[in-house]
Amino acid sequence: MRRTQSTTAIMVYHLLATAILLPAFGRAADPSAKCLSLKSTLQLKNTTILDVAYLAAPATVSTAGACQSSAAVTAAPVCRVYFVTNTTSTSAVHGEAWLPDTWYGRFLGLGNGGLNGCIDYVGLDYGTSLHFATVGSDNGHDGSSGLPFLNHPEVINDYAFRATHIEAIIGKQIITAYYGTPAAKSYFLSCSGGGRQGMQAALRYPADFDGILTGAPATDFNHLAGWGGMLSHYIGATSPDSSATAETSPKFIPPELWSLVSAEILRQCDLLDGVRDGIITEPDECDFQAEVLRCTGNQTTGCLTQVQLEAIKNIYSPLFGLDGELLYPRYSPGAEADLFASSVFGGNFSSLMADWERYAVLNVTEHNFANFSVHDIALVDQVNPGGVATFDGDLSEFRTRGGKFVTYHGRRDPLISSTNSKRVYDLISHTLSAPPHEMDSFYRLFLIPGMGHCFGGLGPTLFGQGIIPGTNAVNDSDHNILLALVDWVEGGVSPATIVGSDGNGAERTHCRYPMRSVWNGTVFACEE
Ligand SMILES: *[C@@H]1O[C@H](CO)[C@@H](O)[C@H](O)[C@H]1NC(C)=O
Ligand SMILES: *[C@@H]1O[C@H](CO)[C@@H](O)[C@H](O)[C@H]1NC(C)=O
Ligand SMILES: *[C@@H]1O[C@H](CO)[C@@H](O)[C@H](O)[C@H]1NC(C)=O
Ligand SMILES: *[C@@H]1O[C@H](CO)[C@@H](O)[C@H](O)[C@H]1NC(C)=O
Ligand SMILES: *[C@@H]1O[C@H](CO)[C@@H](O)[C@H](O)[C@H]1NC(C)=O
Ligand SMILES: *[C@@H]1O[C@H](CO)[C@@H](O)[C@H](O)[C@H]1NC(C)=O
Ligand SMILES: *[C@@H]1O[C@H](CO)[C@@H](O)[C@H](O)[C@H]1NC(C)=O
Ligand SMILES: *[C@@H]1O[C@H](CO)[C@@H](O)[C@H](O)[C@H]1NC(C)=O
Ligand SMILES: [Ca+2]
């Protein structure tokens, strides 16, 4: 990664790039002085500039408030502008713009994760390392809890749709003020909850971004949260902050039995793709039969009781609503082995669902989740706070404007089913009457076998998604999905595949849906 290079090397690189490649943009004569002058010269509607600082690379950055654990080292020298924009009299969005000395004329907006409230420092660092003027926001509240939503509908609106829009508006204005020229192209990059924000932007503010890159998007948000609640319910969890109740429930499945379940899932399904490597390339084809793990005779350990078998059966079945309609796809077989799965099956009731239902739907601080059911989900659906659902296939305006949308999803994602991303693709395709060859002209979904939530997992899962440091930030569009999007938007070159690396030399070509990843005896190739 570039961050490991010396500052001198970075400076030389920048000077070369400026002189040879970038006559139109590039460095200010004295970036530090120019940066600091923004403190008094920036005048933006409804906005207060809280701080302006020039940061040479590397530097450590931290912020006050509930997210203060978020800190980062900058990969490139930047002008950092910290601002707050009032969105109404009872809500405001805090944000940071990181403006690299060497700028390639591009704006990159960032999202957030889960219910948070935390500026994405990894994304700011990543974006500026690739010379984007990068802007992140706090999504309208501070911290990871949903408590700020309680009796604050405008804070919910910021979370559901407005913070990203404000980030785009204010971000573009700051860029114009600093560089003296507007951004030529605008991009959005985020994962998980931020993936939902990206989709919401395309639906609601299709002019905000020319290119949108989302990972593991939390689309169909109310049903995703409700599904999380049902997964908790299946294993006997009743409270978001105590695992005691679930661990004593007969429905609870302790870690050693999950290991048994995972081993059995692999025994039944690993070879479906032709390679025994621990990766189930297409989990939707894994028809996992748990019966073989049933306790027999006087066996009491290393097996599942009838009640536990019921829980497993529920977990690996789709979730249907009161009228038999599909609410959310099933849990992906194999995903239970991912590190983050313990936050789903560890014994606490889903904090996403608990916070959302208490603070945004019921407007209470206390609620007993002992009898959680699809009735709760129906209520959440009915209120749909802030229009957060984000399950709408009408991307026609975004497409008509020439917007490009790239999305990816790990097939071993333990928090958000990758099958839901197929479902969203199919929804858009159906809504626009666009078969795959037409979808290809503006919307591409890459499914990543073995990958967990946004990153990590098994196999070659690094492709420049930027959600963690060291995500393979190479300047190579085949291996970097963000730069592949740039090529598509600016050069008309659409990404046919994306190549993942494992950091140790192994690679795998990841396919775009509905193509399939097929082993031909030597490599996995993409086939219709
Ligand atoms: C934003 O709102 C706060 C609180 O209502 C107020 O004190 C501040 O002056 C407002 N800022 C701007 C720029 O309007
Ligand atoms: C400023 O905030 C007010 C509400 O407080 C809003 O009506 C107005 O549209 C905002 N202006 C801009 C440019 O965002
Ligand atoms: C990638 O490298 C090419 C030259 O090979 C250069 O023109 C381009 O600006 C670089 N892009 C980024 C984002 O660094
Ligand atoms: C019960 O367990 C004992 C000791 O492990 C074993 O010898 C016996 O055969 C078991 N009985 C049945 C019915 O499986
Ligand atoms: C359950 O929640 C408590 C309180 O937030 C936390 O300390 C604990 O680690 C959680 N347990 C699991 C298994 O996630
Ligand atoms: C909670 O407040 C929201 C507005 O934020 C409202 O739409 C909803 O109906 C309220 N819920 C109840 C149960 O009153
Ligand atoms: C849950 O349902 C059971 C059985 O109907 C009932 O006895 C219990 O009081 C309910 N618990 C809560 C918290 O509503
Ligand atoms: C499998 O695909 C690779 C890459 O396209 C190719 O080089 C190789 O010859 C193929 N192997 C077989 C057995 O078709
Ligand atoms: Ca396999």
From TrEMBL:
It holds the Pfam family Tannase. One of its GO terms (molecular function) is metal ion binding. It comes from the Eukaryota. The keyword Calcium applies. Residues 1-28 form the signal peptide. InterPro entries: AB_hydrolase_fold (IPR029058), Tannase/feruloyl_esterase (IPR011118). One of its GO terms (biological process) is xylan catabolic process. Gene3D superfamilies: alpha/beta hydrolase. It catalyses: feruloyl-polysaccharide + H2O = ferulate + polysaccharide. Keywords: Calcium, Carbohydrate metabolism, Disulfide bond, Hydrolase, Metal-binding, Polysaccharide degradation, Serine esterase, Signal, Xylan degradation. Its EC number is 3.1.1.-. It is an enzyme of class 3 (hydrolase). Belongs to the tannase family. This is Carboxylic ester hydrolase. The lineage of its organism: Eukaryota, Fungi, Dikarya, Basidiomycota, Agaricomycotina.
